[in-house]
Amino acid sequence: MAEASSSEAQDHFTCPVCLDLLKDPVTIPCGHSYCRDCIEDYWVQADNAGVYRCPQCRQTFTPRPVLGRNTMLAEVLEKVKKAEVQAAPPDRYTTGQLQDKICSLREKWLEVYCRTDQQCICYQCLMDEHKGHDSLSCPEIPQGYRKTEQCQDSLRTRPESKCLSVCLQQHSARAALEDTESIFSEMIHSIERRRSEVRDLIRAQEKSEGSRAEGLLERLEQEIDELKRRDDELEQLSHTEDHIYFLQVRPLDFLPNNILHNVFGLKFLFHLIFKVAYELKEQLGNAASEKIEMVSQTVHKEYVLHISEPRTRAEYLQCACQLTLDPNTVSVYFSLSEGGALMRHPQSHPDHAERFDGWEQVLCEEGLTGRCYWEVKWRGKWVHIGVSYKGTSRKGHGKDSCLGHNNKSWSLFCSPYDYHFTHNDKKTPVSGPCSSTIGVYLDHSTGTLSFYSISEDTMTLHHRVQTTFTEPLYPAFGFQEAEISQVSTHEQQCVSFI
């Protein structure tokens, strides 16, 4: 009866987030109660969105509610905990219960659980029949249960957490878009106001100079009339021989030279306004281009919503890609059949700028830029398995054309005795079991390149590269006295090497 009462109390006072008895209980405005730490951690994820939600009834709150301790609920919980401590377990077992707890072979207490054989055993059995098996002592079993429950809780809440994360990302994107539109609208309005001010300034100057020009024209007409009158006088004076009278005549007034000066000055002013406006346009364009480029790089490098990397071989095979050997890159030491199989027989190939004529290497046709996975089965002396940029050199026996020995290719070297990773002529020893099957995983956007040893469905990481890829990557292979039997993606043979 006490156990039933305790169970009901636990169900009634359990936090919906951590599924444990409430700790430091708080009650939010909708009436539901949570552990303070649980609801605060849950709401931290919504800080960027500014909208806070009850995990149970999904009611939203804006702004974030102030959390206050529910003292009455806390007192009740203290009483429940004390009642649980005082409740003693049964101190007697029935004969049937005792028989179930004794080893049938040695008649000792069953105190160990053998994970390998999935049965309860005694310590003597652990030292004999179950020696070396994966085992768990009785005190550790409750802890194992709790870990299992935590994993189950995590699996149950993972879809909701991912959904919440995606919703928050979408809300943040919409908010950023609205803010950006508002800023650009303000910039456009500001430029429109400046354009209107400059237009009014030019028109005012045009009106002012137009009035001045009318005055100048009127004065010019008067001066023309005066010049005509003077011209008549000069015509008359040209026929007189009285030089004294000629000198006594008032000197001729000439056309003032400031008229053309005013015209050219006004033209220079308008040209200056045009020059300033043009320079402003260029500066705005350059500044906008630089800032947009900075924003674009930041978004791609820092704030892209990353998809979690696969965890099992089945999940990796969901990223499998189709690969096809590029006949234009096949080394002169190989021939390519009509079925796409690469055979170790020297063949006269037509000259091509992309063909390897020094190293026994070949690239695939596909330039990879997304999330891709492929597996390679090999045997023999040694092989190179990797990726390369399109611009890797193809001619001669130099390092610039050897996979992994330049800054344009990444390669895992495999032999029966040694594995190492090579990039830019730098070798890095790698750990892990030797295997005839190598898995390659590429996530171009995050700059991740991983090499795995494959044994049935078990994947062991050999080496992982974390960098920034600037071009599409082409799967690449190189080998000496070895062969790659097939390149498989999603249980499908794509390329054969014979």
From TrEMBL:
Entry keywords, A to Z: Coiled coil, Immunity, Innate immunity, Metal-binding, Zinc, Zinc-finger
GO cellular component: cytoplasm
GO biological process: innate immune response
InterPro entries registered for this protein in UniProt: B30.2/SPRY, B30.2/SPRY_sf, Butyrophylin_SPRY, ConA-like_dom_sf, E3_ubiq-ligase_TRIM/RNF, PRY, SPRY_dom, TRIM8/14/16/25/29/45/65_CC
Superkingdom field: Eukaryota
SMART domains: PRY (SM00589), RING (SM00184), SPRY (SM00449)
Pfam families: PRY, SPRY, TRIM_CC, zf-B_box, zf-C3HC4_4
Coiled-coil ranges from the UniProt annotation: 203-240
Residues of the B30.2/SPRY domain: 303-496
GO molecular function annotations of the record: zinc ion binding
Protein name: Tripartite motif-containing protein 16-like
